[in-house]
Hints:
Layout: H1 5-21, H2 26-40, H3 46-51, H4 64-76, H5 80-88, H6 93-96, H7 104-114, H8 119-127, H9 139-155, E1 161-162, H10 163-178, E2 183-188, H11 190-193, E3 198-199, E4 201-208, H12 211-219, E5 224-230, E6 234-239, E7 244-249, H13 255-263, H14 266-278, E8 282-284, E9 287-290, E10 293-296, H15 300-306, H16 322-327, E11 342-343, H17 357-366, E12 371-377, H18 389-405, E13 410-418, H19 429-432, E14 437-441, H20 450-461, E15 468-469, H21 487-497, E16 500-504, H22 514-522, E17 527-530, H23 542-551, H24 565-580, H25 588-591
Parallel strand pairs: 4-7, 11-12, 12-13, 13-14, 14-15, 15-16, 16-17
Antiparallel strand pairs: 1-3, 2-4, 5-6, 6-7, 8-9, 9-10
Helix pairs in contact: 1-2, 1-5, 1-7, 8-9, 13-15, 20-21, 22-23
The structure holds one DNA strand.
Amino acid sequence: MPIYNSEVARIFDEYADLLEIHGANEYRVRAYRTASRNISYLSHNLSDMIRQGEDLTKLPGIADDLAGKITEIVKTGHLSALEELKKTIPEELIKITRIAGLGPKRAYRLYYGLGISSIRELEKAAREGNIKELPGFGIKLEQAILDDIERRGKLREGRRVLYSAAEEIVQPLLAYLWDAKGVKGVEVAGSYRRGVETVGDLDILITSEKVSDAVDHFTSYDEVERVIARGTTRSSVILRGGLQVDLRVVPEESYGAALHYFTGSKAHSIAIRKRGVRRRLKINEYGVFKGDQMIAGRTEEEVYARVDLPYIEPELRENRGEIEAALRNNLPDLITLNDIRGDLHSHTNLTDGHSSLEEMALAAKKRGYEYLAITEHSKRLTVAHGLNKARLAEQIERIDSLNNQLNGIIVLKSIEVDILEDGSLDLPDDILKKLDLVICSVHHKFNLPREKQTERIIRAMHNPYFMILGHPTGRMIDERPPYDVDVERLIKAAKETGCILELNSQPERLDLDDIYCKMARDMGVMVAINSDAHSTQELDFMHYGVIQGRRGWLEPKNVLNTRSWPELKKLLQKSRKTLVSGAAPGNISEKIGAKR
DNA sequence: GCCGTTTTCGGCCCGACTGTTTTCAGTCG
């Protein structure tokens, strides 16, 4: 059973958590966290590196000690130092540090003072009034603990909200904040601005001539349930529904510095400030300082310029190589919604969609698209009334006739065909061959062992009509984990067989995720960003996919549906001819000119 | 525990806010 990078990263993170509670040197803790983060974004498998005798200390943040620990984990599946530590500190204490107001120090005191090692015990002790008696604790902290436990109960433990749900909250809140007297600027920062698929809280930045008015206006917003902090420059509230919103009021001359600082990510901010330190500059949310003198801060561009970097787009700010790319003058020219020329995945009311064929076509035209692929489910998916060969043949005729009537939009004859358990497709080649486009997806048997699931999909990719792998991991954020599949191998197989991977824009899917998008891009495999719309309105989901794609460093040239229909048609036909004629597997990505 | 334009030891990002304290520790982002 090979150990994956994510497992090594998880073990290092857990070790860091326990070390912190144990009171270890904070920089030692930080070293494990840094290593964990670096490992989880690595595009090479650590197991492979060790087997091939590569030097792990070449990796950032890894020296002899951690290289040894990685080797131990890869060879034995666990870390003995972590097992030892668990004997002195219960691992459940980690959960306690996630409660608002509690961190490692207080968790440790709760454990040694009252023997508390679980949320349940914590709640009981707080209700009985035992916590306020501990030194360093008091009545307010005790109440705050109870409040947070209750809030988590409502929200489900540690839940973050989908980006799309946060978007619904953000729009009216921003409009409301603009109404305050003296407001000169309002912007959302934080993970929302970086386009992260789920948002833990909202960070809003405001510039105003009347600071206290702005804070008053904010805290009296109709949706505010509770005010949890109220300072002169910062204020935090909990909205109905449980989402926390932090407001920061900043002066205009600091706006860029503040926006940069509060957009994060934390890792990116730290890396930027370290570059500042090396230049004897102090960078904080008020600006860039040389001694006591402020030398920049009105715009983000100014801040970057002071550490000799070009502007870096928010979606890239994760310290996953964007600073190094900026130094090489090699930042990606990120895709935008305007680059998208069509949608290659949609359904109609013939199967499980809600709009008619004509309605979908016209809605796509209205969005300025050149083409829309109607990709109904295939017969295996009975709950969705999937099409058999005869019904698909009828649909092909309907689309042909619709295309004769329509102007300015082309409907592609397509299918989202099921990949069966043995890796064959749910419809025969003789009908697939009549289509413009074939998406292949896994919709059942999610629980196959990793090896079998991976083989199943790779076998399907060798079918000459396989063009796009739909929602490659099947995950539903917060609802269903991805099926166990080796995505790195899928990307390699896509490269070999000339297949394209989908980035599905349904807000709870966003599958591929950002990290795998970048991996596909780095390996020269193209991505198709599709809405998977089941109604005309859902065509607008495309923008979620574009945001995720930007987080995955995708440029227009990496994305299939930035091509015009004639280009796309030529490429798909060419690719199919190569594959059907039995020649060596072609590579659509290379043919279309995807670089890198 | 890592790292090196302060290079093999000494530093490692920075400030606001709260609560529990009488000057600051802990948490948070």
